[in-house]
Amino acid sequence: MPPVYAGGQVATGASLGLLGNRSVMDTPFNQTSYTAELIENQQARTIRDVLANDPSVRAVQPAGGGADGLFIRGFFYDSGDYGLNGLYGIAPYYSTRANFVERVEVLKGPSALLNGMTTGGTGVTSGGAIGGSINLITKHAPDVDITRITGTYVSQSQFGANVDLGRRYGEHKEWGVRLNSTYSNGNTPWNRQTDEFGNVVLGVDYRGERVRAAFDVGYQADNLRPPLRFFGLGATTSIPQPPKPGLNFQVPWAYYAPTDFFTTAQGEVDLTDWMTAYAVFGYHDSNINYLYPSPTITNGATGALAGLPGRGKETFETFAGTTGIRANVDTGFIHHAMNINYSVNDRGYDQNLRGASIIAWNLYTEPTNIPAPANFNGIALSQRTGVRLSSVGLSDTMSILNDRVQFTVGARHQTASTEVTNFLAPASSRPETSSSVWSPAYAIVVKPVERISLYANYIEGLQTPVVVAGNFTNTGTVFPPTPTQQAEGGIKFDAGRLTATLSYFDISQRSIITLGGLGNQTQELNGRQRNRGMEFNVFGEITPAVRVLGGAALIDGVQERTQGGVNDGKKAVGVPVITANIGAEWDTPFVRGLTMMGRVIYTGAQYVNVTNTLTIPDWTRVDLGARYTFVSPWNGKPIVVRAMVENVANQAYWASAFSGVITLAAPRTYLVSTTFNF
């Protein structure tokens, strides 16, 4: 992996899939790689906590709901598409604990060439990772032995412990073993909610002179009771005021219990001094059992809610793999970094859902007296879906003038096959449908002077094929994998211990709209949303005692082609004009070992519906914390005590809007931990 940058919060580079590991200044994209040090110091519980540092990323699923779906650059990114060691869809499905993660790599913009298509949540409805993608790198043993135990506390009364063990063996420490495990249980910051979570992840690696290999296997389980859900809008004409912080609007008998088994195996062999063969394979099995109503706001003025309780089980099984060859050769004064690979991704998804009678309650009164349904006789869903993706990608990065000018050209030929078996409504089933498409990309990096990089790229993303279903005149029509396009340019400045990036991007996503009158309607792939904007990112050290991390994003999200043209030119749902993050750490001079930290997160107002008649207001969250490091009197090794308060003002606010739903933010949350090294 690229080494850690000054300040320790981010790395000097990250993986670019087909293009391999690249430093920030040699990357023709906007990318940030958050480190394990940041994860530990901020006491991040899940990956969404880590991504709270990024101005272009916002969580769009409710806090306290056990899921980590996102908006990146104003486009949805499904929690089922997170990558693990370069394989997308292999990470735990709904939410990933951060304790076993070494790096959280955030790549902005579509990445069909680099990483291939994504499978999406149900396997046949992928959004295509339009705004960006997330890749997680697992921890492996460092050269120094690790024996680390951390006790944790989260308000209201959730206690836990993390164990981190690492050893290297062999004459040259070529063999490594790393074990990470965590367990926590107790009451969460919401009233009447408990969360029991545990995981264990083992990583084994080998570092030889010409051969490198790693194997990771993990299991995690969560039992969340009751899970908080998003709010549907129904026919309401107003958005209600949010309930007071910590109020639990969910019925007491609801539960959410996912389990995930995941594994990756990767290796590379230096065939010559200039050519390396590599491969990585992964498997993921996810099972989710749940019972809850997802409330719909029926009256925004009074806070009246209604919901249909559903008891269900979902199973995801994903296989993924990539194998290829990369080579470095010279032709005259031009240096070539070439790569060719073959990738596959196969996901099967089974869903069974039973419903009960509709219940009604109120947003501002905890529904402790609503009895659980006596039975769930209504079969709402029973289906099996599948997607099989395969692709061949090739790229060549040509550089001259000692890498002062780098031009990358590449393309990926992708084939997507999807199928649906609907056991409840067999007429809605569809056989396997396959189609193929080419996805090109071009990028350039120019370093006119030392410490400055200018970059630009054109790259595409892909959404899975869609088959027209229902009462349309073109029912059965197959829309092939739908390309989305990004054009981006920017400038990066590395002052040695402080780096800043300024980017401009323009992303267009196509969508399906309905045309024609009643009885003669067709569906066409003519809709479009266009997000244009600018991003500013900064990280590193202002002085050896002061570290900063954050930035701002300005996004103009517009619906350009809508059904009947009635919403053309209106703002996109859930895309704030401005989002900003700034965090800082200060090593105090008056107490040795004491570090103060703070973070401000701002999100502008968001439209909730396509007609732009409903909005949620802007919000600001302030987090404050401190850590104190001192030497253990027993073994002379460091002990670290950390404390943090998220949402210091305990503000109640609507955090996000997405596809006809809105979500609540978390109340004030206290985090305390102590790490012992042995």
Mean pLDDT: 94
Q: Please report the number of helical segments.
A: 3
Shape: globular
State the domain count.
Answer: 1
Q: Describe the main β-sheet briefly.
A: 22 strands, antiparallel, barrel
CATH superfamily: TonB-dependent receptor, beta-barrel domain
In the predicted model, the low-confidence regions spanning at least 5 consecutive residues are none
GO biological process, one term: siderophore transport
Domain TonB-dependent receptor-like beta-barrel: 210-648
Membrane topology: Multi-pass membrane protein
GO molecular function, one term: siderophore uptake transmembrane transporter activity
Structure description:
It is found in: Cell outer membrane. Keywords: Cell outer membrane, Membrane, Receptor, TonB box, Transmembrane, Transmembrane beta strand, Transport. GO terms for molecular function: siderophore uptake transmembrane transporter activity; signaling receptor activity. Its main location: membrane. This protein is 2% helix and 59% strand. With 678 residues, it is mainly beta. The protein has one domain: Maltoporin, Chain A, CATH 2.40.170.20. The strands form eight sheets. The chain has a 22-stranded antiparallel barrel. Strands 3-9-10-7-8 form a five-stranded mixed β-sheet. It has a three-stranded antiparallel β-sheet with strand order 4-5-6, with no helix packed on it. A hairpin with a 6-residue loop joins strand 13 (175-187) and strand 14. The radius of gyration is 25 Å and the shape is globular. The mean pLDDT is 94.
